[in-house]
Specification:
Length: 377
């Protein structure tokens, strides 16, 4: 999935953020300097540890082109791309990001946003100034680790009034991965036994809730403090991967949703039922390549199926919004943390310590203009 989106990114140059470092800074703000309006943004020029390579700078505020809109960023979230772009790991992804340093269009990371439209391009018709919006912008660019960004209007959707900015930014990437994995690719059926490897993160939390709509029995695999949070969320069974290797058990599953892809494909096949499905959303490049090569061969002698999700960004956000409105799903948020915590939050993600989706509140002023500022537990 990640390799597929990276290939799309490589072919596009759509972000309109222009950054001009002026001085280091400490807290979010926007200021006017002569005829130019500046903002704060996180900038990266080299790969390395997040707290060493991410710099908080002043940058020129971007202006929307033709079909773009300028968005005041109210909240953003941390994703695997942010970890990969910052650290340059796995190394294979540098073919898309840049061999020795991130490409210019990736120098302000961040791929999920919830915010308020400030300006619209000449040919933009979907939104107007003042609209609250959100979305996974990765098909069109990056840049949500800033106070403002410009992005093609197709990358965004209207935010429901009842949903806070923090909740909204936690949804697009993780919820779409979970939904497309279980429903579209996995074709989940009522009462199935499902295992989610890496169940303590954002995809796992949404995956559990979506699976429960089908009365599934859901086993979650993770470790540490995450297991307590997962028990509270409602997983039927929990496995601490540091104490137990579920691929060596006698339990078999109808569907495995793998958020890590950190084991050989053959190990997963052992715990799939005869017509079971294994679905990966990304992970170690070597294991992903093994899966791609072996999938056609497997079909020759087995009814078990292995597939990788090719994410369709923001597809079916309306369906997720309706589930939210009907109180059938909630957003499991790690945070929200303040804007200056972004390097720390990326490291937290890389260390696998987060419970649910790591969310960053970028602009407190968003909550002082009549927009919803609370979220459900």
């Amino acid at each position: 999935m990640r390799l597929f989106i990276l290939a799309q990114m490589h072919q596009r140059t759509t972000m309109c953020i222009v950054h001009s470092p002026l001085r280091d800074a400490a807290t979010p703000y926007t200021k006017r300097c002569g005829t130019l309006v500046h903002m704060k943004a996180y900038n990266i020029k080299n790969y390395g540890e997040p707290d060493k390579v991410l710099r908080l700078i002043e940058a020129e505020q971007p202006k929307p082109k033709n079909t773009e809109v300028q968005v005041k960023v109210c909240a953003t979230a941390i994703n695997d791309y942010d970890w990969c772009i910052t650290t340059g790991k796995p190394f294979a992804y540098r073919l898309f990001f840049g061999i020795f340093s991130p490409r210019k269009k990736l120098m302000i990371p961040g791929m999920e946003v919830a915010g308020i439209v400030e300006q619209v391009g000449n040919n933009a018709t979907k939104f107007k100034a003042g609209d609250a919006v959100y979305g996974d912008i990765s098909e069109f660019g990056f840049g949500s680790f800033a106070e403002f960004l410009c992005i093609d209007e197709k990358a965004l959707a209207h935010k429901p009034d009842s949903m806070s900015f923090e909740e909204a930014t936690s949804i697009p990437h993780a919820a779409m991965l979970a939904l497309q994995s279980l429903r579209d690719v996995g074709q989940i059926k009522d009462g199935q036994k499902i295992l989610i490897n890496g169940g303590g993160g954002g995809v796992g939390s949404f995956g559990l809730q979506l699976a429960k709509l089908y009365n599934a029995d859901v086993t979650g695999v993770d470790t540490g403090e995450k297991l307590n949070a997962m028990e509270t969320q409602g997983f039927d069974n929990l496995i601490d991967y540091k104490k137990e290797d579920f691929t060596k058990s006698n339990q078999q599953y109808d569907l495995i949703l793998d958020c890590k892809t950190n084991r050989s494909l053959w190990k997963f096949l052992k715990v799939l039922k005869p017509e079971g499905k294994y679905i990966s959303i990304g992970g170690r490049s070597g294991n992903l390549l093994q899966m791609l090569y072996m999938s056609p061969i497997l079909k020759l002698f087995s009814k078990k199926r292995v597939q990788m999700v090719m994410l369709k960004a923001n597809k079916d956000l309306g369906y997720i919004n309706q589930l939210y409105e009907d109180n059938k799903i909630n957003c499991v948020i790690d945070g929200p943390y303040t804007f200056d915590k972004i390097p720390w939050a990326i490291q937290r993600f890389g260390d696998g310590l987060h419970n649910g989706k790591i969310v960053i509140s970028v602009n407190k002023q968003c909550h002082n203009n009549g927009y919803n500022s609370t979220w459900r537990n």
